[in-house]
Amino acid sequence: MPLFSLSMSCNHCVSPACLKNCPAAAYDKDPGTGAVTIDASRCLGCKYCTWACPYDAPRYNAARGVIEKCDFCIERQEKGKTPACVCACPTKALRIGDYDETGETQTIAGFTKSGLRPAIRFKELRKHQQVPETTAPPAKESVARLFESSQHIPEPKIKLRAEWVLLLFTTLAALLVSWLTVMLPTPSAINPYIFLGAGALGLGLSSVHLGKKQRAFRAIFNIKSSWLSREILFFSLFLGLSAAYLLFFPGVPGFGRAAVAIGFISLFCIDRIYQVAMQVGPLNFHSAHTLLNGLYLTGALMGNGLIFGLMGGLKLFLYLYRKLYFKRTGRKIRPLVSFLRLSTGFLVPLILLAVNPGTLINYYGYIIISVIIGEVIDRTEYYDEIDIVTPRKQMLLDLETALP
Ligand code: SF4
Ligand code: SF4
């Protein structure tokens, strides 16, 4: 089998996902050279660009707490020199030239397809370098073993044990928005210090993983295109309006209504942040999406059988559909976890409702606790199931699909 090399540094895309998604507006695109550069003094170390870039180009420097990546040797280019890699490559495998932004995006085996228009061109492999036709292609298992034995399977970028703060924050956000929705007519029933303290805790937790916590304020600098910026802005606004309503103007329902509307927008923004992750199942609509969780919890807290039943039915369908898809495609399923999720989230509330038909109120407390436990399990599974497709992972997926 021939060996061939792919350049896996930054491709200085025409529509760079890193620049679009960075909440701190730390990226720039140089109009002259097309170089996509990062200003480390603006980076807050959230690592979101490492999720957004499908080419795995931005690398987090844990010692500095910021992102680093190829800057196309922009300083050398300003002095009329070629980039260092082009100069140093002993086989002259790299060349720099004009890039036609209107041209077709080139596709090549092993190179992740994206709509970012990466500014790179590949030379076709010469005939004798192309993959030979074989009568006995290697079995999937042997290829997988080869990858495993040579440690080519990369660590997942989204790992539950690393993202537990985000799990807590997103669950808490859904709970607070639904709580305020239900208590809109009777704000005095909410202890404002517990409510606002929980919200502040949520925001604080979401900044624990930042490499540069002192720059957390920069997280809202890219409202124009970053869902992460929008999430932080809208959730902060939700807390601000909630504080105004609960502490100072409980007699002005407009504050409460505005807080609820903005709260639900913030839940929508949370879900959009994860659009850069790989699809989970064919629908790419997860039963643990935060907006769905917020609506389901609202139905449960309100004791509204219609909302509760509709949202619960949708969540149950999405959950079962996904698990069946996993089973069909050989992905890991944890039967005990699924049993716990289904029983706490759906079965127990349904049994309690069957005992007291017509109302959620009698067993209100038990139903709510059971539903919340079910939601936490589902959201935990969410972080366990989603991941980012890197070029290495894409190659493995392509191989698995191509092989018989
Ligand atoms: S390759 Fe990645 S880091 Fe480089 S410009 Fe494209 S999206 Fe940004
Ligand atoms: S602020 Fe976040 S997204 Fe922006 S460059 Fe730094 S780590 Fe990447």
Q: Would you mind describing this structure in some detail?
A:
By secondary structure, this protein is mostly helical. It has 3 domains: 17-119, 2-Layer Sandwich (Alpha-Beta Plaits), CATH 3.30.70; 158-262; 277-387. Helices cover 50% and strands 3% of the residues. The protein has helices spanning 17-21, 48-52, 74-78, 84-88, 140-149, 164-183, 192-206, 227-248, 253-273, 290-302, 305-329, 335-355, 364-385, 391-402, and strands at residues 27-29, 36-38, 59-61, 66-68. Strands 1-2 form a two-stranded antiparallel ribbon. Strands 3-4 form a two-stranded antiparallel ribbon. Helix 6 packs antiparallel against helix 9 (253-273), helix 8 packs antiparallel against helix 9 and helix 10 packs antiparallel against helix 11 (305-329). It starts with 16 loop residues before the first helix and ends with a helix. The model has no long low-confidence stretch (mean pLDDT 87). The protein binds iron/sulfur cluster (2 copies). One iron/sulfur cluster (SF4) binds at residues 10-13, 16-18, 36, 53, 55, 57-58, 69, 116, 118.
